[in-house]
Amino acid sequence: MKTTPAVGTPLSRIEGKQKVTGTARYAADYNVPGLLHGYVVNSPITKGRIVQVDTIPALAVEGVVEVLTHKNRPGLAWFDLQYTDMDAPPGTVFKPLHNADILYNGQPVALVVATSFETARYAATLIRFVWEEEPFDTCLQNHPEKARPAKKGFATALRPPPPKPTGNFEAAFANAAFTVDADYRHSTEHHNPIELFATTTIYEGNGKLTIYDKTQGTINNQLFVANVFGLHYKNVQVLAPFVGGAFGSGLRPQYQLFLCVMAALHLKRNVRVVLDRKQMFSLGHRPQSLQNLRFGADATGKLTAMSHLAVSETSQFEDYTEQVVAWSHKLYPAPNTLFDFKVVPLHLNTPIDMRAPGGCTGMHAIECAMDELAYRIGIDPLQLRLLNYSETDPSTGKPFTSKALKTCYLRAATQFDWFKRDGRPGVTTRGNKLVGYGMATGIWDAYQFPARVEAIITAEGKLVVHNATTDIGTGTLTVMTQIAADAMGLPVAAVTFEYGDSKKPFSMFQGGSAITASTGSAIMVTAEVLKKKLLKKAQSIPNSPLKNAGMEEVIFTNGTIRLRQTPRQAVSFKQIIAANNGKPIKTTRMGMPHAIKLRKYTKATHSACFVEVEVDKDLKTITVTRAITAVAAGKIINPKTARSQISGSMVWGISKALHEETILDEHLGKYINTNLGEYHIPVHADINTLEVIFAEEEDTLINELGSKGVGEIGLVAMPAAIANAVFHATGKRVNKLPIHFDELL
Amino acid sequence: MTNISFTVNGQPRTVTVAPWVSLLDALREHLHLTGTKKGCDHGQCGACTVLCEDKRILSCLTLAVMKNGRSITTIEGIADGEKLHPLQQAFIDHDAFQCGYCTPGQLCSAIGMLHEGKARTREEVKELMSGNLCRCGANVGIIDAIMQVKETYSHE
């Protein structure tokens, strides 16, 4: 009789059938009548201005409807603030086709609109620009003197400036028994979801637009469009029921949305704009970075001094920042610390968050420095972590809401057979391969955003839940359905979660591993209110067996409310709705982070990663043959989709450590490997055994669910674990990512 | 403009397209079969993989006019009505996708690869599926799903 709990079960993705049959529709998959196709033209120069633009040859092509440039674009909002968005860094947001100025290579400078995609693409080659080029700088290493603290603004709340120094770092470092002083360098990376950025705008007339957009935030983009184009927000509906990956690139409204909407309003027609792969490298990126770490330990291996200095790039118009340097002190207690984070403004587009922004940058350096320190001291790298383990947050002295990192270390190490390894570098071999074992720690914030949820019990006694969030492949639809089913005492089959629509109640963008905690907790809060409403209505039924029963005296199970003591006495949801004259019963509530209570705690997910690599003795090619990640993230709602999140981000870890990098030509000021043939991400042949462990972690404080996010934590530890394994295999420390085989020759 | 008559998912279809229109764009824009995905338009990602007769091809590197008179199967034609192809079911069971965007290409490619009959081991399957990129990192699930179906097939 009792509904089996759905939370904690490995339910297959609810939208799975749509995804394997090709019926799942993404932003470019809506074929509407009279659709026009837009093709974007991008600047080939890096800095300067457009002196002249001739669109006549392009307009002469049969099928071309319009060419929009800064010269003839329609009038738009006047104030910079109207172009801002929920994820905009401090500064002045970039405005496409605003004027003749070129701020970065690849900046959109024109949109050709035609009756077919091929015509628009061809006509785009006929536009003649005269450019005036100015000197530029895109090289981070050349300009350490330009590094300055980042400006503060609205977005600083989620990415605070570096922590203040403690104690006397320089003195402590000078007196340390063992020290490490190392520099780390990271290349630029681009998100490259396989889905090209696309927007289909349906012109409904009367100032109304229906927009299918590739985004991580339907409401973020709805408000952006309304503000920029002077429309009432209620007349702008942004839909993103399926999103073909985004990894951060969809956190801000991208320029194809702006250009598509502009063309649709200008022409009063339905318009689609799809970017090509090269243009996908002009949407923002993970910034190049330079880091210096100095760690000192006493004779017993206890850390006494930690310094972490990072310099990262940003654009000339916005100060993009990441949380790079704060992590070591959330893990390891050291009385003397020095942290700094600075930006160098370059003539590039503003970077944008990319999976585990800052965390996977900083933790690579921190965990490689820890490995190096362990070898200096002559103890096992895991032993060094355990020696410096802290149950409380060393940076604040506050307790964690939960922290099962030690369980992660021990379970993963045991499963990996870590303790059997020969710690000496370069001595373990397998045929013609050098074998290396490395480990690292991961930590990531456990965010929760406010979210609003509407929950409805229908005439059939079923539950429909509404929220504006997207599901970018994370499993949000499935996970929310499970949470809602258990919250209302219904089987999963009786629950529908409707999402990906700006008309639904509020959700922030889907980022920071926060949506399960945000929308999930809001569902819990809303369900409690809805249950009370249902009970009250049930009690109003003549001769109701639930009369006078309080909430604690009843249970909600399988679509009925039953008395806890005498479960045969029950009223079904259907009966309740019938008593309500067949009208659905609904409620809408906001779920909020418990900000005041949680001020006394630090919230974080943790992980431990163990990696085996093989390095060819002659060619020095590197293969990750086996990797285990143990994760502590509170309650795991769906072990199947959560496992995919972790193993997927482990693939990202392999990619970051060994494969992916956007190469910037500092003389041309542009990225030169802007295609998937030359921007390397792992293929199937690069991926071997990946194992995922979820450590038991009960968290009664964090939120209504006791759950933290799993979207990013799987990536954080992996690059350092791989780099440490490469050292163990070869005896060489390569502190630059990605590690290329030639650096081992 | 050129008339092309071919069989798509078992149905005779005719489209009138310019000679430079790719098979991918003809399927998506003219036949409204949007299950086949565009990820690079350069033959580098595999998202646009379809079957021509039993052979896997990249529809972005194929002009529609080249397939006049031929038989094309897209992701929309893989299931038998409501009954999923065993590989489609295996993809769901093994959680062989996250965002789902590369999935149509992975499935068509895997069906073509199994038909080629060249891959014997897991390593060979991985190698011969390496033209299909998955950015979500669902690689392990994808290969697990293919291996499960491959074994069932070879036992028959």
From TrEMBL, chain A:
SUPFAM superfamilies on file: CO dehydrogenase molybdoprotein N-domain-like, Molybdenum cofactor-binding domain
InterPro entries: Ald_Oxase/Xan_DH_a/b, Ald_Oxase/Xan_DH_a/b_sf, Ald_Oxase/xanthine_DH-like, AldOxase/xan_DH_MoCoBD1, AldOxase/xan_DH_MoCoBD2, AldOxase/xan_DH_Mopterin-bd_sf
Residue ranges occupied by any Aldehyde oxidase/xanthine dehydrogenase a/b hammerhead domain in the UniProt entry: 21-135
Superkingdom, natural source: Bacteria
Pfam families per the UniProt record, alphabetical: Ald_Xan_dh_C (PF01315), MoCoBD_1 (PF02738), MoCoBD_2 (PF20256)
One of the record's GO molecular function terms: iron ion binding
Protein name (Swiss-Prot/TrEMBL): Aldehyde oxidase
Protein's organism: Filimonas zeae
